[in-house]
């Protein structure tokens, strides 16, 4: 089946075409408007999706050298995400499906982050995914397509959220994750010992204390500006160290607990260089095959929605035309799905 994938859960309007020959196009329109606010403004995000979505879909069809009449199903992010943003993508997808009389597929955005690993690669089941993004941090045991067991997740901030909030404290632009990553490569990870929280718990995370600890650490310095100027790279490296150590230690727990031989990283934070290096070492030490999506498939994109939609159509997991968006992940179960 030829699948058109649409993603609009946060601040990226994205469309992609996936066919039996693989990924044909992957278009992302990022919304620059949020930078000046240091975070995503939901109302502005919905409006920007509304303005951009048709053009983005057209571009995906053009670059995929395919016309709408050759699309067999539309896969769209059902959640989690910002309600207003999700609604734009879902209503647009429903309109397309109604006009062409083709089925609709509702994709769980967090499933899609995991299945981004299958775009260029063929990971074997069972696997453990460390899904680390702007809104989530999860260890997921995947025994077969769409057979997931959530081993644990964060109790407060997500790993990406920690990078972004700490970046704000350090005066870095939003999103700060990539900037902290880049700076960390020039800094000393042992410059300061920031706390690694909840190491006594196997699979759960907590990152909210880390930003407070960075804040107090800076306040303790006599000349904060001067100190930051001289040691920004070292602080970034120490923060990255604290976050990635916790992630990798718990990933090790999950590997040992499940006995899997396949490990995947997923979500925006899987773009992180230090995390990638540590995960590679862990995989080597535990005899696991490690899969990490290409950088373009780590952060939000529609290629991951299209491939997940394609896998769902193989299992006849279609949605009704009254499919609702869901803003949070509490219900991992898909609503309105028919087998
Ligand atoms: P969710 O998927 O949980 O709904 P999201 O879609 O906003 O959240 P993603 O697009 O998967 O999240 O990832 C964005 C996050 O990834 C941001 O917090 C960003 O700072 C972080 N990030 C991106 N690249 C890097 C990097 N190289 N190092 C660390 N963090 C990064
Ligand atoms: Mg984004
Ligand atoms: Fe995401």
From TrEMBL:
Substrate binds at residues 131-135, 164, 177, 181, 272. Keywords: Acyltransferase, Cytoplasm, Iron, Metal-binding, Transferase, tRNA processing. Its EC number is 2.3.1.234. Fe cation binds at residues 109, 113, 300. Its main location: cytoplasm. It is found in: Cytoplasm. It catalyses: L-threonylcarbamoyladenylate + adenosine(37) in tRNA = N(6)-L-threonylcarbamoyladenosine(37) in tRNA + AMP + H(+). Its cofactor is Fe(2+). It is an enzyme of class 2 (transferase). Binds 1 Fe(2+) ion per subunit. InterPro entries: ATPase_NBD, Gcp-like_dom, KAE1/TsaD, TsaD. Gene3D superfamilies: 3.30.420.40. One of its GO terms (cellular component) is cytoplasm. It comes from the Bacteria. One of its GO terms (biological process) is tRNA threonylcarbamoyladenosine modification. Belongs to the KAE1 / TsaD family. NCBIfam families: gcp_kae1, T6A_TsaD_YgjD. Required for the formation of a threonylcarbamoyl group on adenosine at position 37 (t(6)A37) in tRNAs that read codons beginning with adenine. Is involved in the transfer of the threonylcarbamoyl moiety of threonylcarbamoyl-AMP (TC-AMP) to the N6 group of A37, together with TsaE and TsaB. TsaD likely plays a direct catalytic role in this reaction. This is tRNA N6-adenosine threonylcarbamoyltransferase. The lineage of its organism: Bacteria, Pseudomonadati, Balneolota, Balneolia, Balneolales.
């Amino acid at each position: 089946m030829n699948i058109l994938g649409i993603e609009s859960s946060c601040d990226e309007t994205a469309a992609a075409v996936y066919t039996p020959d693989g990924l044909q196009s992957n278009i992302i329109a990022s919304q620059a408007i949020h930078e000046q606010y240091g975070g995503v403004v939901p109302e502005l995000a919905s409006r920007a999706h509304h303005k951009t979505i048709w053009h983005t879909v057209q571009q995906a069809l053009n670059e995929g050298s395919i016309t709408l009449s050759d699309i067999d199903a539309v896969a769209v992010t059902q959640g989690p995400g910002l309600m207003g943003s999700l609604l734009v993508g879902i209503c647009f997808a429903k309109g397309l499906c109604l006009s062409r009389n083709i089925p609709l597929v509702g994709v769980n955005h967090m499933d899609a982050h995991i299945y981004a690993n299958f775009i260029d690669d063929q990971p074997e089941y069972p696997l453990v995914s460390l899904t680390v993004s702007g809104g989530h941090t999860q260890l997921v045991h995947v025994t077969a397509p769409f057979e997931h067991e959530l081993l644990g997740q964060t109790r407060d901030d997500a790993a990406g959220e920690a990078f972004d909030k700490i970046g704000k404290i350090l005066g870095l632009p939003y999103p700060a994750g990539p900037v902290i990553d880049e700076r960390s490569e020039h800094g000393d990870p042992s410059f300061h010992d920031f706390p690694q929280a909840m190491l006594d718990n196997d699979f759960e995370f907590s990152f909210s204390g880390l930003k407070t600890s960075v804040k107090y650490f800076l306040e303790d310095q006599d000349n904060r500006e001067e100190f930051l100027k001289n040691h920004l790279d070292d602080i970034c490296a120490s923060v990255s160290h604290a976050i990635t150590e916790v992630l990798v230690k718990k990933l090790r727990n999950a590997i040992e607990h499940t006995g899997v031989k396949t490990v995947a990283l997923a979500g925006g934070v899987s773009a992180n260089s230090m995390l990638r290096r540590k995960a590679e070492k862990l995989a080597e030490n535990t005899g696991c095959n490690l899969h990490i999506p290409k950088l373009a498939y780590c952060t939000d994109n529609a290629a991951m929605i299209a491939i997940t939609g394609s896998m769902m159509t193989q299992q006849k997991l279609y949605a009704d035309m009254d499919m609702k968006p869901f803003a949070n992940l509490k219900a991992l179960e898909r609503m309105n799905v028919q087998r």
